[in-house]
Amino acid sequence: MDGRTGRTAGAVSAGTGAGEALRMVDVVKVYGGGKDVVALDGVSLALGTGTFTAVMGPSGSGKSTLLQCAAGLDRPTAGRVLVGGVELPGGGESELTRFRRSRIGFVFQHYNLVPYLTVRQNVLLPQSLAGRRGRRAGAEAAAVLERLGVANLAERRPAELSGGQQQRVAIARALATRPAVLFADEPTGALDTASSRQVLALLRESADAFGQTVVMVTHDPVAAAFADTVLFLADGRLVDELRSPDAAETARRMAALDGATATAFRKEAA
Ligand SMILES: Nc1ncnc2c1ncn2[C@@H]1O[C@H](COP(=O)(O)OP(=O)(O)OP(=O)(O)O)[C@@H](O)[C@H]1O
Ligand SMILES: [Mg+2]
Questions:
Q1: How many whole angstroms from 65 Cα to the centroid of ligand 1?
Q2: Strand, helix or coil for residue 21
Q3: Rounded to the nearest whole angstrom, what is the distance from the C-alpha of residue 132 to the centroid of ligand 2?
Q4: What are phi and psi of 21, to 5 degrees?
Q5: Which atom of ligand 1 is nearest to the CA of 217?
Q6: For the chain, what is the domain count?
Q7: Does the C-beta of 65 come closer than 6 Å to ligand 1?
Q8: Is residue 80 helix, strand or coil?
Q9: CA of 155 to the centre of ligand 1 (A)
Q10: Residue 172 structural domain
Q11: Model confidence over 195-227: pLDDT tens digits?
């Protein structure tokens, strides 16, 4: 499915009344600086509330750019992004920051916890930045730490935790503000197999039990198989989509894309 042909990837649960969590319409991102790089070349998608979507594609295909544009961490060059039916605001950086704080959770490969704050303080941070303090925010933070199995670590600092524990805390922090969409860019990229499974199971449960919409970039077909749908990117375009993915079929589709990229690369080099 190609953005230019007007087809839209993704699964909006039609008729359930559950609504739409994310919509991107013909999103283009061009990075300037000498030779322009078209990182996103007309991406359209629509994701229903409570869905778990994996984004895969060769290195440089635009996965991180897609996430950053969808999450309001970066502005598209053209096109529209709507989160929970509300359009990404124009105007200054402060409006975009407010938008992110109220609607978006983001989890990075390397956790990005604040080293001098305890786990509890880290989880409370986005809420206090959004102006929500006091007992209610404290209770919500405690509840999410409990749910993610890290309540016993609340008074530790990030350096005193394993990678898997740090990532679970980072997910707790992202979920504590109840975002419309939780974005995760290779959240298991730095974890061992057992910790990866725990993190993926948490994301899966967030979608199933709490209706959390999750969008995750990954290189790992096993990780992608935790999602409802895999969207495949190549050269900044959505080129394939797999519902109810299993690891073997996901790996086959990825291999086909990697092969196509390698062929294009050889042609370019020749
Ligand atoms: N800030 C930037 N300035 C210029 N070009 C950029 C910038 N960020 C990304 N790009 C380019 O945009 C394209 C897409 O990059 P992106 O980081 O989205 O890829 P990716 O699919 O996430 O790759 P990876 O799997 O290696 O993380 C690449 O060609 C990259 O070099
Ligand atoms: Mg990336």
A1: 6
A2: strand
A3: 32
A4: -95, -35
A5: 22
A6: 1
A7: yes
A8: strand
A9: 37
A10: 3-269
A11: 899 899 999 999 999 999 999 999 999 999 999
